[in-house]
Design a protein that fits this description.
single chain, 305 residues, alpha+beta, Prim-pol fold, 2 domains, six-stranded mixed beta sheet, three-stranded antiparallel beta sheet, 9 helices, 12% strand
Length: 305
């Protein structure tokens, strides 16, 4: 099994069941137990070493180890006995039901998912801020940072004005994240950076960014309306829209176009995501920046990029 080389050197206490070096065979149970003991609702997901995907879906998309094996909005638990029973049945990855988790003074859980190490620190620096030390789980590509947010904000998975600025996503409300002790399909084990460090309150600049709409609001657009000529090429139109983006508007225009492409894909029409990526790069965006924007758009509309 591959260990997570993104993570820094040993951080937890030597006798901690989630200290680095934990055997993959016991890590899922240990991870699930650590989570419930610290107030994080847990449920089982598929495990990549199973012969067949254990997810509830009808067809696996190949992303093994991440599919809920139960209806997670209802079947999560905080009971240690239930955790032992569930994870003794066979290999399952532990996951956290984000929306079911309450923090101090009624706050709700928000998980910031960086697709590369230091991604959220870079965004904070761009805002003239420093990212706080908080509960962090190292993943196959980057890390999950757990923070608390006021329940009144009713956050979801939208990035707000961070669209195109952040290499990653956020998870709040009716969402879930894979937890420590889980095994990624690549062989990397999800590990806590410091088992003694709890989540802190989300910084105000982040919350302000998440609740502020980007310049192009997500809305459903019927491309086949009567204002379009018969046989109008939707993909070509979206690509042309992105290619014509003036400097300073490219991310917003790409995000808007990617939302339309996601809607088309959901309704059985041609998926333009790859054409949009090429157009965005030609328009002057980096591949990483354009990919992050397109992924955010597909997540915002409920599609999968």
């Amino acid at each position: 099994m591959t260990r997570n080389t993104n993570a820094p050197a040993e951080a937890g206490a030597p006798n901690d069941p989630l200290a680095r070096g934990t055997e993959p065979s016991v890590a899922p149970l240990n991870g699930a137990l650590w989570l419930v003991r610290h107030g994080f609702p847990v449920f089982p997901c598929d495990h990549p070493e199973l012969n067949r995907c254990a997810g509830l879906h009808k067809t696996c998309d190949g992303s093994r180890g991440k599919h809920p094996a139960v209806a997670f909005t209802r079947a999560w638990t905080l009971d240690e006995a239930k955790v032992h029973e569930t994870f003794a049945r066979g290999l399952r990855n532990p996951a956290v039901a984000v929306g079911a988790c309450s923090g101090p003074n009624g706050t709700r859980l928000l998980v910031v998912d960086s697709d590369r190490p230091g991604a959220i620190e870079d965004v904070a620096a761009a805002h003239g801020q420093e990212w706080p030390a908080t509960m962090r789980v190292w993943t196959a590509k980057g890390h999950h940072d757990y923070v608390w947010a006021p329940a009144a904000l009713q956050l979801g998975n939208g990035l707000g004005t961070l669209q195109g600025q952040f290499d990653g996503d956020v998870r709040a409300g009716n969402a879930y994240v894979i937890g420590p002790g889980a095994l990624h399909a690549s062989g990397v084990l999800y590990e806590l950076d410091d088992p003694e460090r709890p989540p802190v309150m989300a910084p105000h600049w982040l919350l302000d960014a998440l609740v502020t709409r980007p310049a192009f609001a997500v809305r459903r657009t019927k491309w086949w309306d009567t204002t379009r000529p018969e046989g109008y090429d939707r993909v070509r139109g979206l690509v042309a829209f992105v290619l014509a983006s003036p400097r300073g508007t490219r991310n917003n225009r790409l995000f808007w176009a990617a939302c339309r492409a996601a809607e088309d894909a959901q309704e059985g029409r041609e998926d333009a995501r790859h054409a949009l990526l090429e157009a965005a790069i030609e328009a002057g965006l980096s591949e990483r920046e354009a990919s992050a924007t397109i992924r955010s758009a597909y997540n915002r509309t409920g599609a999968t990029a």
